[in-house]
């Protein structure tokens, strides 16, 4: 991190000073810049120096971009650091991707300036956020670096260059200043309303925006403010733009840009330059200075620039019920608790005027800031039978905010891409992730104490039979018995009856329910148990592969009697092994056949979320938990009427042959009812985990395993997302016609919605309902 001290001259660290100056005699003037924005987030104050995180969202022509050559949609998410460094070395120019400058007004009132391009080139890290598929070909980069500056009245961070692409809709040649110029003003000082320094607004935008010929077009800039301030947009004045704006350009306070293309021929290009300010919603002080509500003074000021091009296009459309938002800068965000999974259904259709063979082939998403866990998109949009609409889904697996924050906010742009290469207008979301106050893990019970609450037997106010455990009631202030599977009643003394189904079927009592989401790592074997109930004693159902996504392969191990619970009836368990490919959201269906294997008696379908190993390796298949424990991150739809669901988790036994201590991290979400040696898995213990019907994450972990350090707790942890649902997937699918058994119904019970899964070998000649 560079420290920029202003005292007559900028004194940089020696290593950064050398980098800063070694190439500045060369200027690379390629016309590759297509737009940019800057924002900042305050990081810390230490011994007279402020540290801020500068984020730059920039657009570049693919002929000379930070993405590299070639640059394709598959590069989204790729780091741009290596290619940036290569371009500097190969061209001998430190300014291929712009110059960076600082202007600082010191506490004494002196103005100091300096070029920090070399230092920024060393520190900046970025990734590919978007790649277009149609002309003009361009990409968008989200990059950041940390800047440390001395205490001062204000700091201007300036990003500029000589490389705007050709412009036809405004006169820059007369002014001999077709360069780009972005300025961001930082003011320090503690706000009396938040108790912290200010953060600038953040924004997302499209670097290249098509506008129809001879008409007015509106372009929205998506903005948010972490401090909850009022965000106001306006046209940049001459101080911040050295040549005139487009004559027909207007910008309203809500960041909607209007451009009239009348008089401009097709192919004309123009640059839009907008200033975004944040103003307090009530009068506050910051650094001792008063900022009045609706006053003229802004807390900070940032810019966004982008290109408009007059061109006819037939872009696809994202349609209802996709919950797109408008005017995000001053609108309430979607709130979600940390560690929950936000599920956003997506619906899109080709432009009504495009050729009939046009299809929706993909959805793309851009997010700011970059989250710690990747978003997961359904890689295979499914065509609906109504209005030529394709459906898909976006999953955002949230993580807690940093330790010093109670929330994190994200901006999302989602685009639908059609088979012609056109992208839709952005569907916009603002998401606020709220920190949770969690119950810390309990210590092991002391000698003489039993149960999850480690209560003394003589002090317990409840008595439980058949292995039940006392625990605090979820609805009353008293202890109650939590019963293992197969028993019920106030003291767990009553046994369940044999369900005796009319035909073999699946069993939700201890397995992943129909419509659940299984999380797996890429290019690996993902193992979980499927529970079934047979009609006749000793005759288990036969499990067979049903329609699924072609990216998945599945096999079934031998079916065995279910011995881990006391459930009555002819119950069986089969380990299923999914062989995964690349990341994405996929579909998997399984058929149950009767003992004669002459007919299908039931079908279950699951969502399968495949994540990169860099994400899943921290939580999948680790030391204490062993297969067939349901994979970490699996989502369990739990009927509200049942109040609770169960899962079976398997752990390694200790060297003594006993079971390790398995602890719930929050007994309001999960309760370990039993943890005993397993009969069907060698050298293992099996736990019955009760998941209460409360939305959110339910976590358990093994308290200690031999030869593990104190830092290995995360490795011995399993968390499951519980989603309360009004109806089960099986009930939702009863009214869905998927031409069974050729097709199968996959439900998403928490939305609720359904889709038909058709055989992969017949996808080209079956319709959305799996009919010819």
From TrEMBL:
Residues 1-29 form the signal peptide. The keyword Disulfide bond applies. Keywords: Disulfide bond, EGF-like domain, Integrin, Signal. InterPro entries: EGF. Residues 458-493 form the EGF-like domain. Disulfide bonds join 464-481, 483-492. One of its GO terms (biological process) is integrin-mediated signaling pathway. The keyword Signal applies. This is Integrin beta-like protein a.
């Amino acid at each position: 991190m560079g420290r920029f001290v202003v005292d007559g001259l900028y004194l940089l660290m020696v290593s950064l000073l050398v980098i800063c100056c070694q190439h500045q005699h060369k200027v690379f003037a390629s016309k590759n810049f297509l737009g940019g924005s800057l924002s900042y987030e305050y990081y810390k104050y230490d011994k007279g120096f402020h540290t801020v995180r500068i984020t730059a969202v920039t657009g570049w022509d693919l002929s000379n971009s930070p993405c590299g050559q070639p640059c394709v949609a598959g590069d989204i998410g790729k780091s741009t650091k290596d290619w940036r460094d290569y371009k500097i070395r190969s061209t001998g120019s430190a300014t291929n991707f712009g110059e960076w400058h600082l202007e600082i007004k010191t506490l004494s009132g002196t103005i100091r300036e300096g070029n920090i391009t070399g230092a920024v080139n060393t520190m900046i890290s970025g990734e590919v956020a978007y790649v277009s598929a149609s002309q003009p070909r361009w990409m968008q980069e989200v990059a950041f670096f940390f800047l440390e500056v001395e205490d001062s009245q204000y700091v201007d961070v300036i990003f500029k260059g000589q490389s705007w692409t050709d412009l036809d809709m405004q006169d820059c040649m007369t002014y001999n200043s077709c360069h780009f110029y972005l300025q961001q003003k930082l003011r320090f000082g503690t706000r009396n309303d938040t108790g912290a320094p200010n953060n600038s607004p953040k924004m997302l935008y499209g670097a290249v925006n098509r506008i129809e010929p001879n008409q007015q077009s509106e372009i929205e800039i998506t903005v948010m403010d972490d401090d909850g301030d009022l965000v106001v947009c306006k046209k940049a004045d001459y101080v911040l733009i050295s040549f005139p704006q487009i004559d027909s350009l207007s910008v309203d306070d809500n960041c909607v840009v209007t451009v009239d293309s009348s008089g401009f021929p097709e192919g004309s290009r123009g640059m839009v330059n907008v200033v975004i300010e944040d103003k307090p919603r009530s009068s506050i002080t910051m650094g001792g200075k008063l900022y009045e509500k609706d006053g003229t003074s802004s807390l900070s000021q940032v810019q966004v620039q982008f290109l408009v091009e007059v061109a006819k296009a037939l872009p696809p459309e994202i349609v209802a019920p996709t919950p797109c938002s408008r005017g995000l800068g001053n609108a309430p965000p979607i709130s979600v608790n940390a560690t929950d999974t936000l599920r956003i259904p997506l619906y899109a259709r080709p432009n009504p005027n495009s050729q009939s063979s046009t299809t929706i082939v993909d959805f793309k998403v851009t997010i700011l800031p970059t989250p710690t866990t990747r978003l997961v998109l359904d890689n295979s949009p499914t065509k609906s039978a109504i209005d030529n609409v394709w459906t898909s889904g976006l999953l955002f697996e949230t993580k807690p905010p940093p330790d010093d924050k109670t929330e994190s906010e994200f901006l999302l742009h989602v685009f639908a891409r059609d088979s012609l290469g056109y992208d839709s207008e952005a569907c916009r979301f603002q998401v606020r992730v709220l920190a949770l106050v969690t119950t810390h893990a309990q210590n092991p019970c002391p000698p003489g104490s039993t149960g999850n609450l480690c209560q003394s037997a003589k002090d317990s106010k409840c008595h439980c039979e058949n292995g039940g455990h006392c625990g605090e009631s979820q609805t009353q202030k008293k202890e109650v018995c939590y019963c293992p599977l197969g028993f019920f009643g106030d003291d767990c003394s009553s046994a369940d009856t044999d369900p005796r189904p009319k035909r073999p079927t699946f069993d939700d009592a201890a397995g992943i329910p129909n419509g659940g989401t299984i999380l797996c790592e890429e290019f690996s074997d993902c193992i979980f148990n499927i529970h079934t109930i047979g009609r006749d004693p000793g005759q288990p159902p036969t499990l067979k592969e049903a329609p699924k996504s072609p990216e998945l392969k599945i096999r079934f191990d031998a079916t065995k009697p279910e011995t881990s619970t006391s459930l009555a009836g002819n119950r069986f368990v089969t380990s299923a092994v999914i062989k995964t490919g690349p990341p994405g959201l996929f579909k998997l269906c399984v058929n149950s056949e009767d003992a004669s294997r002459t007919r299908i008696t039931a079908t279950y379908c699951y969502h399968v979320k495949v994540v990169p190993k860099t994400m899943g390796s921290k939580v999948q298949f680790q030391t204490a938990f062993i297969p067939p424990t349901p994979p970490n991150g699996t989502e369990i739809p739990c009927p509200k009427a049942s109040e609770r669901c169960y899962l079976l988790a398997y752990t390694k036994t200790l060297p003594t042959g006993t079971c390790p201590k398995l602890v719930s991290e929050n007994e309001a979400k999960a309760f370990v009812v039993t943890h005993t040696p397993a009969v069907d898995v060698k050298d293992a213990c099996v736990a019955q985990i009760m998941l209460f019907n409360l939305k959110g994450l339910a976590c358990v972990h093994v308290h200690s395993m031999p030869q593990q350090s104190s830092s290995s707790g995360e490795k011995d942890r399993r968390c499951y997302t519980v989603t309360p649902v009004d109806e089960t997937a099986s009930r939702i699918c009863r009214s869905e016609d998927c031409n069974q058994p050729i097709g199968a119904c996959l439900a998403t019970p928490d939305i609720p919605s359904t889709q038909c899964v058709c055989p992969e070998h017949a996808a080209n000649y079956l319709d959305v309902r799996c009919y010819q």
